[in-house]
Amino acid sequence: MSQINKLKIFNDPIYGFITIPNALIYDLIQHPYFQRLRRITQMGLSYLVYPGANHTRFHHALGCMHLMQKAIDVLRFKGVSISDEEETALYIAILLHDIGHGPFSHAMEKSIVENVHHEAISLLFMNELNIEFNGKLSLAILVFKGEYHRKFMLQLISSQLDMDRMDYLKRDSFYSGVAEGNVNSERLIQMMNVVDDVLVIEEKGIYSVEKFLMSRRLMYWQVYLHKTSLVAELILTKVLKRAKELNLMGIKLPCSEPLSFFMNHRITHENFDSITLELFSQLDDFDIISAIKSWQKHDDFILSSLSKMIINRDLPKIKVVADKQILEAIFPLQKQFALDNKISIAETDYFIFEGVVRNQAYNNEAEPIRILKKDRTVEDVVETSDQLNLGSLSKLVTKYYICYPKSLL
């Protein structure tokens, strides 16, 4: 009787060959919950700015697992004890850390699934898979929740210098073509060690850490918070909000069955049960884009206009400034747009709105990046660095924006 070879190899444009370490990881990758990540873009609507940014969360999850393999090899070489069970748990936790992302990620969290964070949904998926795989994910879930006694394992998955950030910066830099985000993940991993059960970076790797933090700051301003990407995601959020509003008013809109369920129900963390999770697992980017294409022709002026903006990339004007005084200009714009299009002032909020964006490359109040000095003492990277500008990376930078249709220019 022939058996499937589960020790497969993926050819990745970032790292070369990525190997699947064992049969359990293969079975998780093959599961429909995970395969769905092939249909969810990693960078949402950023491809409207950077045409190459069409890579998926499937790519990213495999890249994170690959980096975790490298990190485990390095730590074991340096004498850190990691059992086979702990190794597999780390692979599972990092592989599934983003499985709870919905279509276009953050736009979903702010409109259809109300205030349910993707990490909470990831945990729901992991618990469901744990039942299906007869408890084989139990240790991974403990690590993911931060309840396992070995603290450094959670730091590898979720911290200010984890496998997640190392991969998405390098990968998003590659696919967007923004070279400033290309971090040296290989050297960062080679410099890792564990002291008193806490993850540290050896002192000779401090310049790689500085480059990592600077790259993260630049990628946020240049890519993730790029003003066109920002306004595209905001409009997508408003499309979904308007569609849900119409559905709850009894106006049925054409869309897929899973999307229709979320349009017709108020979903919170409290009522996110196994049936809801199964329907969520059937949602991907294609449901959203297909629906928006059909909504372009809807009778509702707001829904059709917003949908056309996304499909045709005819987005509102967005001004990003450091001074929030510009936000005072919003009411005259709303008044003019309401008059021109025969809608109420309240309805102009879909087209003319304000907001704020924040960027902080390094958070002093969060778990620090620790540097292991040559005298074996451990310090926060900000204290160890001789770069004058590294302290400024921990400063929270706030910018304000106002969006309005180009017809008001």
Descriptive report:
The structure is a single chain. The protein contains 18 helices and 9 strands. The chain has 409 residues and is an alpha+beta fold. Strands 3-4-7-8 form a 4-stranded mixed β-sheet. A 3-stranded antiparallel β-sheet has the order 5-9-6, covered by helices on one side. A two-stranded antiparallel sheet has the order 1-2. It is globular. It starts with 8 loop residues before the first strand and ends in a 5-residue tail after the last strand.
Helices and strands in order, then pairings?
Blueprint: E1 9-12, E2 16-19, H1 23-30, H2 32-35, H3 57-77, H4 84-95, H5 106-109, H6 118-132, H7 138-144, H8 151-157, H9 163-176, H10 185-190, E3 192-195, E4 198-202, H11 206-224, H12 227-248, H13 257-264, H14 274-280, H15 285-295, H16 301-311, E5 317-321, H17 330-341, E6 353-359, E7 370-372, E8 378-380, H18 381-384, E9 397-404
Parallel strand pairs: 4-7
Antiparallel strand pairs: 1-2, 3-4, 5-9, 6-9, 7-8
Helix pairs in contact: 3-4, 3-9, 4-7, 9-11, 12-16, 15-16
Briefly say what this structure is.
This protein has about 400 residues and is an alpha+beta fold.
- What class, by secondary structure content? alpha+beta
Share of residues in helices: 40-55%
On the 0-100 scale, what is the average pLDDT?
91
Q: Distance N terminus to C terminus?
A: 71 Å
Strand content: 5-15%
Number of strands: 9
SSE sequence, one letter per element:
EEHHHHHHHHHHEEHHHHHHEHEEEHE
Rg over C-alpha atoms, rounded to the nearest angstrom: 23 Å
Strand ordering within the main sheet: 3-4-7-8
| Low-confidence residue ranges | none
Number of helices: 18
Q: Can you tell me the overall shape?
A: globular
Largest sheet: 4 strands, mixed
